[in-house]
Amino acid sequence: MITFVxxxxxxxxxIANMLRSSFIDEATAAGWRGHTVPVHKLGIKTGLxxxxxxxxxxxxxxxxxxxxxxxxxxxxxxxxxxxxDRMRLEILGQALKDKAHTYFRERMGxxxxxxxxxxxRGAIMDLKDRYLYKITPFTASQxxxxxxxxxxxxxxxxxxxxxxxxxxxEYPSECQFRLRxxxxxxxxxxxxxxxxxxxx
Length: 200
Description:
Blueprint: H1 14-21, H2 26-32, H3 58-74, H4 82-94, H5 98-114, H6 120-131, H7 137-146, H8 154-166, H9 174-184, H10 187-197
Helix pairs in contact: 7-8, 8-9
């Protein structure tokens, strides 16, 4: 059974939103991390996620980024300051493979040659623009508007709609999302819902 949960959404790019919500300022870090022990001091080993290779698939990119941001949180490398950002850039270089690593290395070289600063957020957005350039909010909007349940169960349908909705510039309202979900259901399931809930 699907339960709809209304959550606050920040309009705009999903990847930018992931980056925006993943880092904390130094004052916040000092306040609530004063009594926590870093993972490495507990003897727990955590590795980097499997390297991103440059696949033009937004789900692969978002999952990889989510794991990388989680790695930073676990190792308390999620504080907004210049020193940690340089460390994040170095780690990012280790979390890329093949053509994505080559692109990263060349971009890093360009910034170094010009004597300009390049930060972790800028590097991630550059990777996104380089490899996900065909995935636009319009494309996500089209997918959201045309998804059908087919052989998927209702939870898988809901998850797919949620994923595409998050890539649209303006997240659909609760009413719009519920209507799109209903219209995407198989006709036999939709007919059952209409009859049992007496929906006009």
